[in-house]
Specification:
- The protein is of the alpha+beta class.
- It folds into 2 domains: about 1-180 and about 275-330, RNA 3'-terminal phosphate cyclase domain (UDP-n-acetylglucosamine1-carboxyvinyl-transferase, Chain), CATH 3.65.10; about 185-270, RNA 3'-terminal phosphate cyclase, insert domain (Dihydrodipicolinate Reductase, domain 2, 2-Layer Sandwich), CATH 3.30.360.20.
- The chain contains 8 helices and 15 strands.
- The strands form 4 sheets. The chain has a 4-stranded mixed beta sheet with strand order 1-2-4-3, with helices on one face. Strands 5-6-8-7 form a 4-stranded mixed beta sheet, covered by helices on one side. The chain has a 4-stranded mixed beta sheet with strand order 10-9-11-12, sandwiched between helices.
- The longest helix is centred in the last third of the chain and has 18 residues, at about 250-270.
- The radius of gyration is 19 Å and the shape is globular.
């Protein structure tokens, strides 16, 4: 059994998601303690519960400690299976974070896995579903990952109700050395149950900053009538991305500018991946046994994910300064 201290490093829910995913792939039983110990509300939240429950479903795992606010679980997996499942997070909990827990395991399933998930698509403190599809999934496809992500309906805080369909096929991951890609900035600005000009103002304010910085830019707009009310914008250029959810009382122009400033910071660094993708790639690099990227700064999330991944796999991650950038690579000599 592998023991994981959930308070290590960043100490958030990502430790549990990565540990459960790698437990499913390796077949190693795990015990995770001190889950989110130092958070204002320690323990598992609804979205963590649903992620672990779904992971258990696809690999027939025995799980103990699975309850709201639990600070410790054990997870004992069997073979990973495909199939079709409908998952309801039950809140505006992030669909993207749930998929983060399942996607590494799903690549090693016996058959194709199709998930239709109900929850939040564009919520704070998580990648938007557009980021997951256009940045994360684009990067993983270069490593041989085979996944399609389709947004059926948007879901915003607090009501949620978004729906996403993900089809993941068994894949053989390979190491990949990521380099910065030259391209124009793309994006999507959206709103639900709000005037159409909300999405347009978000897009215009973001495009104005991006073009002023000398980059080509095209941002699509989307206005619909979904279950919940809200807005948001996601921008990307190659494997650099950003997103900003709308918020009651926050002008649309500020939402758009926030996303643009974040992306321009990444573009100006010369890194091959942004700080969020740097975190997400770690388990896949570990599973493939190779690969590298540069990032402008190594976040605590990434350092923590490296630590968790090294507990399961016979790999060592190298971290080196490359001028103003940080290079992360897998040591293939291990």
């Amino acid at each position: 059994m592998i023991e994981i201290d959930g308070s290590y490093g960043e100490g958030g829910g990502q430790i549990v998601r990565t540990a459960v995913a790698l437990s499913a792939v390796t077949g190693e039983e795990i015990r995770v303690t001190n889950i989110r110990k130092n958070r204002p509300e320690p323990g598992l939240k609804a979205q963590h519960l649903k992620a672990i429950q779904t992971a258990a479903l696809i690999c027939d795992a025995d799980v103990t400690g699975l309850s709201l606010h639990s600070t410790g679980i054990s997870f004992s997996p069997e073979e990973i299976r495909g199939g079709k499942h409908e998952i309801d997070i039950g809140t505006a909990g992030s669909i993207s974070l749930l998929l983060q827990c399942l996607m590494p395991a799903a690549a090693h399933a016996r058959d194709e896995l199709e998930l239709t998930i109900r929850g939040g698509t564009d919520v704070a403190w998580s990648p938007s579903i557009d980021y997951l599809r256009n940045v994360t999934n684009s990067a993983l496809s270069k490593m041989g990952y085979d996944c399609e992500i389709e947004t059926l309906a948007r879901g915003y805080y607090p009501k949620g109700g978004g729906r996403v369909r993900a089809r993941i096929r068994p894949s053989e991951l390979k190491g990949y050395d990521f380099t910065m890609e030259k391209c124009q900035v793309s994006g999507i600005s959206h709103c639900s149950n709000l005037p159409e000009n909300v999405a347009k103002r978000q897009a215009y304010s973001a495009a104005e900053l991006v073009k002023a910085a000398g980059f080509g830019c095209h941002i699509d707009t989307e206005c619909a009538q979904h279950f919940s009310t809200g807005s948001g914008i996601t921008l990307w250029c190659g494997l650099l991305g950003s997103s900003a959810p709308g918020k009651r009382g926050l002008p649309a122009e500020k939402v758009g500018r926030s996303a643009a400033v974040e992306l321009l910071t990444e573009l100006g660094s010369g890194a091959s991946v942004d700080m969020h993708l740097a975190d997400q790639l770690i388990p896949y690099m570990g599973l493939s046994g190779g690969g590298s990227y540069t990032v402008r700064e190594l976040s605590q999330h990434t350092r923590t994910n490296i630590w968790v991944t090294e507990q399961f796999l016979d790999v060592v991650f190298n971290i080196q300064k490359r001028g103003k950038l940080v290079e992360v690579s897998v040591d293939q000599s291990v």
